[in-house]
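protien #1 (seq + structre)
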Amino acid sequence: MTHDNSWPVATKFMAIGATKIHDPKQIVMTLDHDVQNKTEKNLKKYTQIEEFAKAQGVDFYPAGRGIGHQIMVEEGYAWPGTMAVASDSHSNMYGGVACLGTPVVRTDAAAIWATGRTWWQIPPIARVNFRGILPVGVTGKDVIVALCGLFNNDEVLNHAIEFTGDGHTMRSLPVDDRLAIANMTTEWGALSGLFPIDDVLKGWLRYKATEATSQTTDRFNHQRLDDLFSAPLTADKGATYAKELYLDLSTLSPYVSGPNSVKVATPLNELEGQSIPINKAYLVSCTNSRRSDLAAAAKVFRNAATTSSDGTITPARIAPGVEFYIAAASLPEQKAAEEQGDWQVLLAAGAQALPSGCGPCIGLGTGLLEPGEVGISASNRNFKGRMGSTEAKAYLGSPEVVAASALKGSLGGPGWYERPEGWEGVVGGEGDGVREEERMISIEDALDRLVREAEEAVLEGERAVGGVGDKGEGEQGQGGKEEVEGGLTEILPGFPEKVEGEILWCDADNVNTDAIYPGKYTYDDAFSSDPAKMAGVVMENYDKGFGNVAREGDILVSGFNFGCGSSREQAATAILAKKIPLVVAGSFGNIFGRNSINNALMGVEVPRLVERLRATFSSGNTSTTTTGTAGTAPITEPEGNRQSLDSPPPAPMATKSEGKGGLTVRTGWTFTWDVRRSRVVVREGEGGEVWEQKVGELPPNVQSIIARGGLEGWVRGEIAGT
């Protein structure tokens, strides 16, 4: 699926010499991001997309029909047991219907259009095991907000997640809740979040097949479901996971995320006591604006309506001074809410209806947050500045919490949740969460366990005797296993043997793609096609002075999880436009790493370098993340932004390098990546310490893509047969 970026993808597709989409049935195009924009320029782009789709025989959904991810689910394109991708970071949502959804970027999309193929690096797999059942008043949104806050140290970063639980537990999670949870696994740092094909999903699919329109009968029909259910895809018995976490749903309460960070999650009751006033409330986005979400919000206002002695009902209205915006995930979802009367209740309460689309969630159109304002949203992302001003505060909560907050004029809930007797806190942690005395194991599982334990014992013995399996001292690069010590990497024609330059230090973790390339330029295609303009704004949301400090040939070095957030590939191309050939980080967000390879921006992970730079140039400030310990203390953004996904400035810098300081520091250090030897060499300034470290060998497919100038060049070669 591609959305408003379909035309930029089409221009890439045509620029690489392709003329016909490889398989039109493999592609869906939707218009959903900037649907409120009625300028001639935007309408022209929308017309171009529609005409291109028609000419290529591709399924197309116009502006106002719905958000692309919702369309993929409700129209049956995201099918259980299959894989579906979209050029948008919230493709993870498809996991809610047991479809492996993961994001790609525009260049990937053009490659798929042209060849039907692209590349992936298989990620580690994490299993998240749910126990218990959700209490009344607690929703799927509370589950994922709590997970993002409780496990906020990158436990699932760049992992693919499988959500599991016994039948009793999973029956307490309807499909709409699963979609919300899977959707926000993106914010949790995961590449996908997959729920099982179980009785809950089967019931939902049967309902969809029964109500299917003539347009969707080829996808939703009972014969196809019979085939699916006869052999549903399941995890292998005895499968091993890179990581296991568990959460007891029965111990959860309503949670709120923020301000301005998904890594700060606080029980609602702790925030209610602080009487935090709000200015705007949003029931929008692909996360939580389906018919069930609209019904839950409408129930808040129905319950608050008053009845006079003569039986006259006075509808409840939002608090004075509050603006409440609603937009359904799709037109069918809005029509369903209208048929139930829920849409009308929300309008009568004072809500302002917006067209079905992304809108305020991505900072486009009506109702954005102004400086100093506070907003509560049922959407998925509350990065600083995403929904408006960087001087505003954004919180995330369930539809019920959004509606109740709009009604009260301050952060609050409808009061439906009651804490269970004997409650002692949220129960969760590492492992599967099953007590040994409760564990039942089959003979097959027991044999699998014995085999695994035996294999591990053999491997440990080999390591002890001959060093087999040792990881070594090095760190991994953008992909591939480490070479044998002393060996040389074959360098393909066009790939540089060495890359070197002065280190430009940007001290922050979780520098997201909006910090690297601001969202306000992302959908301005003319701006984003001009390298000079892109170079002028790169890293602007991190440091407005970056462009004045950076020089051609610098090596940009930053902290951990660099390039997290949305899937915009301009984050990589803008760095290239600034003539910076290499980025070094403690670790990369997966989507940025992918974008970098696709656009021939080189990257390598060297955590030791980050530690050395911080020891030399940073002020030593530390940061903490608050989760469920608010009491009466105000909840604030993580100090220095080191543990959030936001984009405000990091902790203050020390000025130890020739008197230079600031957010972007010219260090005087040099960095050399010897690709042939798979080693990096760092010189810590004139006359300073020199050290080197082994890094991962680049695999041939990555070299081939970069050597051809990026994935577009690779596709040209495939088309030409060279």
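ok now protien #2
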Amino acid sequence: MDLLRSNLSRVRIPEPTNRIYKQECCISFDTPRSEGGLFIDMNTFLAFGKDCVAWNYEKTGNPVYLHLKQIRKAVPEDRPSKKPTLLAIGVDGGFDNSESEYEETLTIVILPDYVTLPFPSVELPEKVRLAVDAILMAEGAERKEQVAAWIADKKQTSSYAVNLLQIDNGVIIPPSGWKCAKCDKKDNLWLNLTNGMILCGRRNWDGTGGNNHAIEHYKETGYPLAVKLGTITADLEAADVFSYPEDESVLDPLLAEHLAHFGIDFSSLQKTEMTTAERELDQNTNFDWNRIQESGQEVEPLCGPGYTGLVNLGNSCYLAATMQVVCSTRSFGSRYYMTQSLKMAFEMAPADPTVDLNMQLTKLSHGLLSGKYSIPALEKDDNANATSTTTAKQEGIPPRMFKAVIAASHPEFSTMRQQDALEFFLHFLDQVERANAANPELDPARSFKFGIEDRILCSSGKVTYHRRLDYILSLNIPLHEATNKDLEVFQKLKAEKISEGKKVSSDEIVRPRVPLEACLASFSAPEEIHEFYSTALKAKTMAVKTAGLTSFPDYLVLHMRKFVMEAGWVPKKLDVYIDVPDIIDISHMRSKGLQPGEELLPDGVPEGDREPNKPLPDEDIVSQLVSMGFNHFHCEKAAVRTSNTGVEEAMNWLLSHMDDPDIDVPISQEAEGAEALSLDQSKVDTLISFGFQEEIARKALKVSGGDIEKATDWIFSNPDPSSLDLDATTSNTAPTPTDAGLPDGGGRYRLIGIVSHIGTSTQCGHYVAHIFKEGRWVIYNDDKVGASVNPPKDMGYLYFFERLNS
């Protein structure tokens, strides 16, 4: 006790705004239910597992910890199962969610000798007792972030709050003992902020909830705002304020005044009710999704190193499927698991390791690859029959902290909506590249990066070359190249049935089967560019564009463009099979660069009043983009920047460059400004010292007016070097500065991973990963990992190939 008193200065009583971690270790996936329990630093309120808490003591010197340990209670084998009377899960009368019950023990632990004091105890100093009580009463930061993610959009300030009418009717609200004014409900109660009426909330679809009295009162009176009683605490932003006319949860910046009108002292209230978002979250994550998605295949469960599942946090399967494949690659496994320990990452991390990408990516990699958490759930159940472990399902690990970090710079990924796995993959690699900008040689994202070169041949016989870098090879699917002969018969049958008003049954459907070779050939095939301005002819003419790769990455990712736009810009998913072999050879796709005898197009000036070097945008492309709601000038710029190659290319460019500093600068002024700007070589050298290539550094300084900070932001905002408009003309096949330093090698690759999508759109449905590991295919379906019976090689959305060493 004397030792504790001597360290009281290192104990803090948490404020309502402090983030308190008490569900999961910040460095590992240990929880209070792990063998060593969880240690909460009573100064920083960060949580640590048994193996990590000593590292925190060494780093911070904080000696006092609250130790949480949860032990599963034994369940009587003869416990009767209640018959459900409600269509609900986890509520009285509903289906039993079969969750185990745990007994929690609390102790105060003082490092470095792990001196232990019991809690609760009247002998403990008052400051320690108050601090522990506050920690236990507070909502965990993990839970807060989960709820915040479930709220798809950040709560907005209500337009009704500032001038809210409050009737001076003498109503004073007591601190407890509330009841609906129109029925006997004592929970789910809402206080109308205009007249002080306490009424029950809406009735849920399953019969639970309230009796709709609060919303009926709004319809009668028009009084707009209500706050849920039981959610009001000293942290007023967390209170659940609902706006009936806006039909959503809102922020009330004057809530303290509005509550004081009814005599409510918010500082003394404790939270007793779930907010609307918390209730929605629980209703949507309590289901056993694996039961719903059972495919009927007898999949042998797998456990051990490299076979750890990821818990679905609510529409997070896009993240789980992508990260399972990425972490299985040698480049990422080596960087964040083999050569970097958890302790190394923690020592390099800032004071709060939960916001550090390097720390959280190391934590995720160790969690997935070490096998520490890949244990059949039944092996840990004392009541389970040991003979049934062959059908045991592992619990998996929840990637909450990793998701929070990776989503911090992307508002869509911070929600609980379904996302496009491709978009997430590109965003993730961009973040990894930024995090390793100071040491590019350590950047594992480079193993996916390669150069693409577009060769444009105009009718004058002269050529121009454009280079860009990319992480993925996006392929069109040429349906006319389908190889199955019964397709034409099916098309005729389908037309006949439609004309007769009948539907085609599922067993009659014949899907086109297109070879991957045809998709790769489509990428390299000559493509006509109409209305191309030739500086040789000084007029618009027809040109032919071909594309090739200037380097072959260690890992080649093929994206199948299954989602296309139909007439009227209606998105549609192609119902097609892709025949993908285990081994591919893309050696023929290497760009040859400028060849002997080829003559480059001059940087000439067009005749007439036309601005220097200003190619003309294709009006058809511009008009289609404008019809979709884009700015007319931006559409013209997008068409020019993509050499008028097509609407899709222009739209992709536009979406990627909407936030560019020079998006509103005319192309001619860009050129003039770049020429007029005299770059300070010392600033160029500074950016080069950050790890950026010289040509990129120069371009960034040009578009940012010579400001180093803005130039750095511009580079990070434009990871796609196609935005640099580098007219790199090559005289041979040697790498130019655009792709210098990237991995390169032979063109033979082996298929190692597939990310498949089930559903009609990338914004809905489900993602599953299949990985070729230790001589067999393995399915990763969220937290379910097993030996694949029939890997869907012909149904992939993203295909991951590893280069074979010659």
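The first helix runs from residue 2 to 6.
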